Amino acid sequence: MPAQQKKLIFCTAGVLSLACALGTAAAVGTQLWVRGTILCTTGALLVNATGPELHKFIGEIQYGLFSGQRVRQCGLGGRPFQFSFFPDLLKIIPASIHVSVILFCTVLIIFALVGAGFFMFNAFGSPYETLHGPIGLYLWSFIACSCGCLIMILFSSEVKIHHLSEKIANFKEGTFTFKTHSEQFANSFWTILVCSLVHFINALLIRFAGFEFPFSKSKDSGTITGAVDLMY
Q1: According to its record, how does it sit in the membrane (predicted)?
Q2: Which residues of 152-173 are buried (b: 16+ CB within 10 A; e: fewer)?
Q3: Edge-to-edge strands of the sheet including 34-40?
């Protein structure tokens, strides 16, 4: 492939990596990871609410990795409540999983930035043969993509398996009991998915530029080596 086309591919991959780093950093600081509604089961059972009356007992909840808010509905109107994971909710959430998600987000941002720098270096500079070259580009892309996948798996397990929304909804509630009525992942969570796909696409772009995958050996080299061995 001509050098100009390779330069264009590396520039495109570098811009995509930089966009992923900025998008992940923005996603970490928002409260748009999970959105849902919570039902005040205690209040609904007290008045035997059904149909349209049930909406008076359905509140809202949304949260991210550090903070969130919920609107408490128990038949007397909405009452908003702000909360933060550190240090308020550490006793009721799976703290190890939650901290791991934040750490992997940090690693994803760092390696996305590193990958963007090396892509640009390979486009406009003279690449080295080791970590600056194609093997390094594969490495940074693989690590960033793996971190994105781990973030989604860990956070999904925290929300779905450990019932994170219900634990947050029942935080400091002694009389009323809340249950998740609906729940869906919001924009910031899907931003991580897009970033993971982008880093996978970057690896394909490197291959499209004409570089072999790491640790792959061509058949021709093996044939030549075998012929040399026979000669000697």
Answers
A1: Multi-pass membrane protein
A2: bebbeebbeeeebbbbbbbbee
A3: 78-84, 67-73, 58-63, 34-40, 178-185
User: 38 has which bridge partners?
Assistant: 59, 180
CATH of 3-209 among 3.40.50, 1.10.760, 1.20.140, 2.60.40:
1.20.140
Q: How far is CA 43 from CA 71, 90, 130, 181, in A?
A: 15, 27, 65, 14
The residue among 133, 123, 116 whose CA lies nearest residue 199 is 116
Distance CA 87, CA 100 (A): 16
Which parts of the chain are beta strand (E)?
Answer: 34-40, 58-63, 67-73, 78-84, 178-185
> What pLDDT, in 10s, does the model give residues 185-211?
999 999 999 999 999 988 888 777 666
Residue type, 230: L
**Residue 210: both structure tokens together:** 């004409």
- Band (225; pLDDT cuts 50, 70, 90): very low
